[in-house]
Amino acid sequence: MSSTEAKRALLVTGASRGIGAHIASAAAAAGYEVTGVARSAQDRMPFPILACDVADDNAVRDLAKTVSRQGPLWGIVNAAGVAAMNMAVTTPAARVRSLVEVNLLGTIYVCQHFAPLLMRRKEGRIVNFSTIAVSLALSGESVYVASKAGVEAFTRAFAREVGGFGITANCVAPGPIDTDLIAKVPDEAIARVVNQQAIRRKGTKADVWDVVSLLLRDEARMITGEVIHVGGV
Predict the structure, then answer these.
(1) Minimal CB count within 10 Å: which of 5, 38, 103, 126?
(2) What is the pLDDT of residues 75-133, one digit of tens each?
(3) 166 in any annotated domain
């Protein structure tokens, strides 16, 4: 990372655990000025974590005002998300709402309220998160897949809306990664997914960060509106 990039501010949602925590920590170690976002504020990480429920439009709007006072923002990584492995007919309505509100609406709200901070400086990077389950149309995950398919469609269209401001917007779609999201999924179910990937092994959090870090760099200025699968489909 250049000395210029090392001073850049990065917002990472879902920064208290899993892939989001790894991305935020790796970005901080690489020299980014990281602000993390989670449901509750925390001080155990090497960067501040501010409290915000990304599914709450008003809360996200207020957070954007707070962050705007801290100085220019370079990038947004929307890593907050929830998952559920249930057949659609057995998924409770409350769980359906949670999946759509956190995964899809949360991503949209963060982009809506934080993208203007990038538009003012006419440059920046947005990285949203999907899942390989969308492309594989995995049975037993239909509601989760629907919420993430919405993220992919939104990202492609949003990339066109912000492209004229020098902002890129892309989507990273990992295969199975060892996090809390798959901790209770049977090994045989994970193996079935891995065997459908182009690279037939589970990815790591570091693999995901490698892709995200590329998309955040100056050299990625012409990569936008893409869905990049970590593991390949």
Answers:
(1) 5
(2) 999 999 999 888 999 999 999 999 999 999 999 999 999 999 999 999 999 999 999 99
(3) yes
Q: How many domains does the chain have?
A: 1
CATH number for the domain that contains residue 109: 3.40.50.720
CA dist 75 and 118 (Å) reads 8
Q: Say what the alpha-carbon torsion angle 114, 118, 119, 123 is, to the nearest 10 degrees.
A: -150
Tokens, residue 204: 């790591």
Residue 140 belongs to domain spanning: 3-226
User: Domain for residue 35, yes or no?
Assistant: yes
User: What confidence tens digit (pLDDT) does each residue in 41-67 have?
Assistant: 988 888 999 999 999 999 999 999 999
φ, ψ of residue 36 to 5 degrees: the values are -90, 155
Rounded to an integer, what distance in angstroms lies between the CA atom of residue 140 and that of residue 151? 19
